[in-house]
Design a protein that fits this description.
mainly alpha; two-stranded antiparallel ribbon; 10 helices; 2% strand; globular; signal; Protoglobin; Protogloblin ApPgb; oxygen binding; heme binding
């Protein structure tokens, strides 16, 4: 863990411990905004995807339970996640400035603020049209269609598709210890963790739409 945090510190993105839950007036955060394009997948498509993943009401309840546990831990969670990215050259390259060849601290910081909100949004997702539209927008921002545009960054043209589903594992594996920090039972921690695995993979699948040929999603 120390190695990961030191790596994150080298990028200048480790936040102070004990930070308050993130604010929602964050540049580039657009959940619920009318300016977002309508997602090309429907509510019926989402329902079918959830059924195929065995994602149901129990998972929604477990995610809701996790929000109270994670809300004041978002910065600590991000320290771990950013440390993992910083120590993984295959990932940190997507946060680099192609002009200098070095990680872009401003871009990392801007994304981090939205990432903190993503933790809370995953825990209390509404799974309505506004949520679907935001998932599509997030996918576009990883793809060459909109990568770098939100923050005026000069990074690689896109995050390669294979890393979207792959990151489900480190994200959810490293989240589990945080779910256990507030006295929840072992059974509840397992339920919350299982729900998070499904929820993160579900989002990664939705984000993948811009990468897939028309008619094949």
């Amino acid at each position: 863990m120390l190695k990961l945090l030191l790596a994150a510190t080298s990028l200048g993105v480790v936040a102070d411990a004990g930070a308050a839950p993130p604010r929602r007036d964050v540049p580039g955060y657009a959940l619920g905004q009318a300016t977002l394009a309508r997602a090309p997948y429907s509510m019926a498509d989402l329902t079918a995807l959830q059924k195929s993943m065995l994602f149901g009401a129990d998972d929604v309840a477990a995610l809701r339970q996790s929000k109270a546990i994670l809300a004041d831990q978002t910065e600590a969670i991000l320290d771990v996640w950013y440390g993992f990215v910083a120590s993984t050259p295959e990932l940190v390259v997507f946060f680099g400035d192609t002009r200098s060849g070095q990680p872009d601290a401003n871009y990392l910081g801007a994304v981090r603020k939205r990432f903190a909100l993503w933790i809370l949004d995953t825990a209390d997702a509404t799974y309505d049209q506004a949520w679907l539209d935001w998932q599509y927008e997030i996918g576009l921002r990883h793809n060459r269609l909109k990568k770098n545009k939100t923050d005026g960054a000069h990074g690689p043209a896109q995050v390669d598709f294979r890393y979207l589903p792959a990151l489900t594992i480190p994200i959810t594996t490293t989240l589990k210890p945080f779910l256990a920090k507030k006295g929840a039972s072992v059974a509840d921690v397992e339920r919350m963790h299982a729900a998070w695995v499904k929820a993160v993979l579900m989002q990664a699948i939705l984000w993948s739409h811009p990468y897939i040929k028309d008619g094949e999603f």
